[in-house]
């Protein structure tokens, strides 16, 4: 049953505009039929169909359609990560990869840090990760990229030896989700607790990276991206 619900929601998400106008039409038609039934008016257009039966059928259809709309709205409301992923790909990843290729690199590789918790992206924690990399004999540097279609930005470089270099980014745009998580959990009647915040944080992280991956495939830069966690296995 759950699989059927997920499938229906996916189809609805892919056809949002059609769903929207179908909902308007069905609700208007159902309201018209209800008024006719309440006024006990006979309409030849419906033939032998009883208005009472039609009201029941339309009511069920309207309820089902409205439930789908509600679930989609809940999903949209619950996924600010989608908007962050869109901005991250279009305003940073795509321009950066494009610029690196224009600079003559055939297949530049940019690693994206994938935290288990959003708090891992706090500057002090990033400094610790960088220090640990240096202690493992990695050489860290920065290059400035000035893409034509985006603002100039420094990109971290990591080298193990002169022949092996990768680019690296900590997606600190995810830090903006911390206020959202606090607001979302603390607005509940039973108030907040740490486990709920962590659970929501993990869900949003998952949604962010899934959307980043989907967008990267659309932009044909997915082969230039890799992900790593705190173990930092780069080479």
TrEMBL record:
<dbReference type="Pfam" id="PF20300">
    <property type="entry name" value="prok_STING"/>
</dbReference>
<dbReference type="InterPro" id="IPR046876">
    <property type="entry name" value="Prok_STING"/>
</dbReference>
<keyword id="KW-0472">Membrane</keyword>
<protein>
    <recommendedName>
        <fullName>Prokaryotic STING domain-containing protein</fullName>
    </recommendedName>
</protein>
<feature type="transmembrane region" description="Helical">
    <location>
        <begin position="21"/>
        <end position="39"/>
    </location>
</feature>
<keyword id="KW-1133">Transmembrane helix</keyword>
<feature type="domain" description="Prokaryotic STING">
    <location>
        <begin position="80"/>
        <end position="212"/>
    </location>
</feature>
<keyword id="KW-0051">Antiviral defense</keyword>
<comment type="similarity">
    <text>In the C-terminal section; belongs to the bacterial STING family.</text>
</comment>
<keyword id="KW-0812">Transmembrane</keyword>
<keyword id="KW-0547">Nucleotide-binding</keyword>
């Amino acid at each position: 049953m759950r699989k059927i619900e997920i499938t229906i929601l996916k189809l609805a998400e892919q056809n949002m505009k059609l769903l929207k106008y179908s909902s308007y039409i069905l609700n208007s038609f159902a309201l018209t039929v209800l008024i006719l039934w309440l006024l006990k008016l006979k309409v030849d257009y419906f033939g032998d169909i009883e208005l009472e039966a039609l009201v029941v059928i339309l009511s069920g259809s309207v309820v089902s359609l409205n439930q789908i709309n509600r679930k989609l709205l809940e999903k949209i409301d619950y996924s600010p990560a989608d908007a962050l992923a869109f901005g991250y790909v279009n305003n940073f990843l795509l321009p950066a990869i494009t610029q690196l290729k224009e600079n003559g690199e055939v297949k530049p590789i940019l690693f994206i840090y994938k935290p288990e918790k959003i708090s891992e992206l706090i500057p002090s924690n990033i400094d610790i990760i960088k220090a640990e990399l240096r202690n493992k004999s990695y050489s860290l540097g920065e290059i400035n990229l000035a893409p034509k279609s985006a603002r100039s930005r420094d990109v971290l470089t990591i080298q193990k030896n002169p022949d092996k270099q990768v680019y690296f980014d900590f997606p600190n745009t995810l830090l903006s989700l911390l206020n959202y998580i606090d607001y979302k959990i603390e607005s509940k009647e039973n108030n907040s607790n740490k486990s709920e915040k962590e659970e929501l944080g993990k869900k949003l992280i998952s949604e962010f990276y899934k959307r980043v991956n989907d967008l990267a495939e659309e932009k044909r830069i997915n082969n230039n991206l890799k992900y790593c966690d705190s173990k930092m296995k780069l080479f």
